[in-house]
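Let's practice the habit of predicting before peeking. Look at the sequence and jot down your guess about where helices and strands might fall. Then scroll down.
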Amino acid sequence: MKISQITTHLEEIAPRHLQESYDNAGLIVGDAEAECTGCLISLDVTEAIIDEAMAKGCNLVVAHHPIIFGGIKQLVGANYVQRTVIKAIKNNVAIYAIHTNLDNVLHGVNAMIGEKLGLEDLTILRPKSPEQAEIGAGVVGYLAEAMEEKEFLGFLKREMETACIRHTAFLGQPIKKVALCGGSGSFLLKDAIQAGADVFITGDFKYHEFFDAEDKILIADIGHFESEQFTIPLIYRYLSEKFPTFALRFTETNTNPIKYFS
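Done guessing? Here is the structure:
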């Protein structure tokens, strides 16, 4: 099977034209017409991921985050991006990214988080347009049963396998309606408030952005990696449904650059 058969299927699920303007989804390194010996699925691409792909006989890495966002003027190994790209090229390992295009479909990254939390009646939090209600940023849904705030945060911590949760002050009201966005989603806070959500779950909130909750919603920052880590089994699910006998591998490398001291 050719690499292009895998990437074409992924783009049927999350078309590349749905990616944000700053993004760089698609085939970043490699020959689309090369025969694929195996596919390693990861959240990020690092030198360790390329090493793992080679060790597992995979000449394709499918990742959520692109290794290249902006332009590269030289490839001299000056940083981890350049070293990773050089290693991939030298060893004939293709790199494909499925990023904000997978964020922006209803059945994508955010739906996977909703599935982990058992949310019902998921809809897009910020649709691209009234005519495209199933395309856009974030999702909002409902818990089967309301939870007290501390109980909910404990549930969230367990289900999302996060070491800590940064949150705003408790409001003394039950959690039933949940808005969320994998990765960096603080830009959707106003949408979450307008939707009447009791809590907004995402990552990468800055200090002053927590004030913007204004006692209208509980913010729960679970971390960028933690919010998107289940994108790996999501991609695996989509590929295994189409190619059930093909060699698909989960990464065993934790690429989260943030560590917690406790």
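How did you do? Residues 104-227 form a domain with the Udp-n-acetylmuramoylalanyl-d-glutamate--2,6- Diaminopimelate Ligase; Chain: A, domain 1 fold (CATH 3.40.1390.30).
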